[in-house]
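User: Here's a structure from my thesis project, written as structure tokens. My advisor, Dr. K., wants to see whether a designed sequence matches the one we expressed. Can you design one independently, without my sequence as a hint?
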């Protein structure tokens, strides 16, 4: 689908959700390498981020003690898989179950104060979010489910996603994809931050199961199990010759909307290749740590062909109840796919050569 210039005009940089210190850290780590074209954006983020820090302090002052009475979930359901493997599609189906809770786009982009501001901002400013995602035309909006990796970025945790803002520099935080070379103290700080975000989401949804989707978590199974010992996992995979070029298009779309530099397209393929190698290696190494009955594996092609049958199988394998109650809402969502057409992805000899060059 061609880009909509009006949509671009109203799409905010998600870095505007950073708190003040998270933004300063990001600038310092990347040596303030903001292109002059984006100085005005960086200045706006600097001012707005200070406001986010003030709102965080207000939220802590008014709600901290109430939030701390909410237990951190021990058994969240993590959807894992490489980018563009169908994780969003599966997430959208599963959240139709009224027993499930999920972090919204607003909560992930404004994790520092959403308990205070979500209802007000999403009602007054719905136009600040596009109705469709620019990379694949799937529904978007403040209330749609979102990746908690963005929340980690906004709270100042290192993440490979900081590469979106500074695509022309060596990825400074890529080690936080699989925690290669990251100290135990830093990993604990990261997981504590993630658990704190989950606690705040569950403050709004007591008694529900938290369902999460974030491709980087595919490389973090060992850390997630240590922090959330009763977690369940769904792994979704897809033909790598479709996944790789689609992921390249995804990152280029993110660069267009959220960068602080003029992107050099030549860096995208190597970055996607390196992330994929790390992600697949960590997954193959650590998936054996998942106890029996806690992992269900799905193929994207099978999910698209028979979505309700695949989801029913997942419920059975993971010992989840309530599928029959959720099935009507899931069926209604699946019926709405008639309005959606995924971006075509022709697998050419050039595509095969590119994927083999990076992933073997």
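Assistant: Designed independently from the structure alone:
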């Amino acid at each position: 689908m061609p880009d909509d210039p009006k949509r671009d005009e109203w799409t905010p940089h998600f870095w505007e959700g950073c708190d003040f210190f998270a933004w300063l850290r990001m600038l310092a780590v990347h040596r303030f390498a903001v292109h002059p074209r984006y100085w005005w954006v960086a200045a706006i983020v600097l001012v707005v981020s200070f406001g986010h820090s003030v709102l965080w302090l207000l939220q802590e002052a008014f709600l901290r003690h109430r939030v701390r009475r909410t237990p951190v979930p021990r058994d969240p359901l993590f959807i894992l898989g490489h980018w563009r493997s169908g994780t969003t599609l599966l997430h959208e189906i599963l959240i139709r179950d009224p027993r499930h809770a999920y972090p919204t786009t607003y909560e992930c982009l404004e994790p520092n104060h959403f308990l205070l501001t979500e209802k007000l901002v999403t009602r007054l400013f719905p136009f600040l979010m596009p109705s469709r995602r620019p990379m694949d035309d799937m529904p978007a909006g403040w209330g749609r489910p979102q990746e908690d990796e963005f929340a980690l970025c906004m709270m100042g945790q290192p993440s490979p996603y900081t590469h979106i803002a500074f695509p022309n520099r060596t990825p400074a935080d890529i080690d936080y994809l699989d925690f290669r070379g990251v100290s135990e103290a830093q990993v604990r700080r990261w997981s504590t931050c993630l658990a704190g975000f989950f606690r705040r989401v569950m403050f709004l949804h007591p008694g529900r199961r938290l369902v999460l989707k974030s491709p980087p978590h595919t490389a973090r199974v060992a850390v997630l199990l240590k922090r959330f010992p009763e977690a369940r996992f769904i792994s979704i995979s897809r033909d790598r010759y479709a996944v790789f070029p689609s992921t390249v298009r995804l990152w280029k779309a993110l660069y267009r909307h959220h960068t602080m530099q003029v992107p050099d397209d030549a860096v995208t393929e190597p970055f996607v290749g390196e992330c994929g190698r790390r992600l697949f290696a960590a997954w193959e190494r650590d998936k054996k740590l998942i106890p029996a009955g806690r992992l269900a594996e799905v193929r994207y092609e099978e999910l698209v062909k028979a979505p309700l049958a695949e989801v029913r199988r997942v419920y059975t394998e993971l010992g989840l109840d309530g599928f029959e109650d959720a099935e009507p809402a899931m069926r209604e969502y699946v019926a709405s796919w008639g309005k959606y057409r995924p971006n075509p992805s022709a697998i050419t000899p050039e595509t095969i050569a590119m994927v083999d060059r990076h992933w073997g």
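When you compare it with your expressed construct, this may help: Confidence is low (pLDDT under 50) at residues 1-11.
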